[in-house]
Amino acid sequence: MLCSCDFVIHQKVQSTKLERVKLLKVLDGDTAKIELKGKTITVRLFAIDTPETLKPGINDEESFAPYENAWGEVAKKELMKLIKRNSNKDIFYLKISADKYHREVGILFFKESLDIKDSINYYLVTNGLARVAYFSFDKWRSPFYLKNEQQRIFVKELLNAQSQALNNKMGFWKAGLENVFAKEWK
Known about the structure:
This is TNase-like domain-containing protein. The protein is an alpha+beta fold and 186 residues long.
């Protein structure tokens, strides 16, 4: 199955343009600022969700799951480390859509390829720092509806990675989802 997924993804490379970007700043474990063609853009990572971090004046700890802020900080710091480690390397961006907060939603890749395993999104899921969320295979009216085969394959691969992270008790999976996320993803 992996070979056929890779084939389909690589087959679509010709029609999908990756943009070379610079990672500027981490806002949260699943949100970063990037520079694209001289413009600063806020990007929410596609199809993943990291635990929330405490933001004074915006949210409070009473609304959090017991370990949510702690794991949110771990995810945020890991994303910051990725930026630092890759500051002299090219990062590539694939825009998927925009969200209700006027952020772009997309995938960040370590290489100029559409190999899912080279994405930051995948990295966070495999390390138990993000769960797969905000997608719909069948509700076409949903803002999270997966619009093409490439998106469906990407999410299926993320779900496989999440299953392995859960089975191996990676990252926050050690603590249990109910202790890490106050919001339930449906």
